[in-house]
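Next comes a single protein record:
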Amino acid sequence: MSETNEYQQAMAAQLRPLFDGIDIVCEWRAMTGQTGVYSPRLDIAIGPFAIGNEIYAGEYDRLTGLASPLLEALYERSLDNFARFDGNNDPVHFGEVVGRNYNARCFLAIEIENKSSRKHLMGGAINAAALGRVGIAIGWNVGMVKAFVKLRAYLMYLSRVGKNTFDPYNLLVLSREQFTDAVAVLHRHREAAARAS
């Protein structure tokens, strides 16, 4: 098993107790059962999964409330990366990030990239943003984080100047260390809440 796969499995295991009763799947195929349609595979996906014509917007809203400490921690770290690597940083508002993709196929769509071409990164970023209520692109190293941020900035620029583009507004970009730390924040929040009750 590669180092990236080990990280993927470890993060899924860390997330499972935080989303009790919600399916968390590694290597989830988004369009399973639909013939003749490209079926992207997400590194980690958190359900519930809309595999047909279902729309789980209300459930994703509920999960957003329950997971707000995690989402806010991810958001803050992503903002740091946008500020660090994108000089023309577009304002990103938390409420819009978590509510942008109304008709998502899963709650969180996570892509982890280690050694990939720019075209592969683009595919991963687009899949995460398109499939998840919140898309998360995890760069294995600083170079990958920077590449994801620059890619997102390019897509945002195309939109700003009226070109055909894809909307990556709900895409957060983090390093693997930032993602691990954000998950730990939610664990600490839950432990503190349990002690207080």
About this structure: The chain is about 50% helix and 15% strand. The radius of gyration is 16 Å. Residues 88 and 153 are 8 Å apart (CA to CA). Residues 3-28+40-196 form one domain.
